[in-house]
Amino acid sequence: MAKGKSNILGIIGFWAFILGLVIAVVFGIMAALGMAMGAMPAIIIVLIILGLVVGFLNITAKEILLFLVATIALIVVGGVFAPLKVLAIGNMLDSILALVATLMAPAAVVAAIKALWAVGKPG
Fold first, then answer.
1. What does the alpha-carbon distance between residue 50 and residue 68 come to, in Å, rounded to a whole number?
2. What is the pLDDT of residues 74-90, one digit of tens each?
3. Which of 3, 11, 32, 118 lies 20 to 30 angstroms, CA to CA, from 42?
4. How confident is the model at residue 3 (pLDDT cuts 50, 70, 90)?
């Protein structure tokens, strides 16, 4: 692939990641406050699509291991902040982390398949 085209795809993947994080933070806070609950199915679909874009365009072969470990850590900590009741901060953090995990899970699936492909490929 030409260097210019690869750079453009990387930029698209980067902005998909940033957009996904912004959506996760905004709607995570709104969800914790009991707002925008009707929009959540659509938000989840958008985050899944953005996660797929990130997985296909951003994760290189040398980043796969670190990315998968970070994604696993992110998913494992879900729900850990719920006991923090002051100003509903625990609910906000949990909602944000759940939506960030929703963004990163499809990217992790793509990265895992890339890793399996690299391992299973002859040569």
1. 17
2. 888 877 887 887 777 88
3. 11
4. low
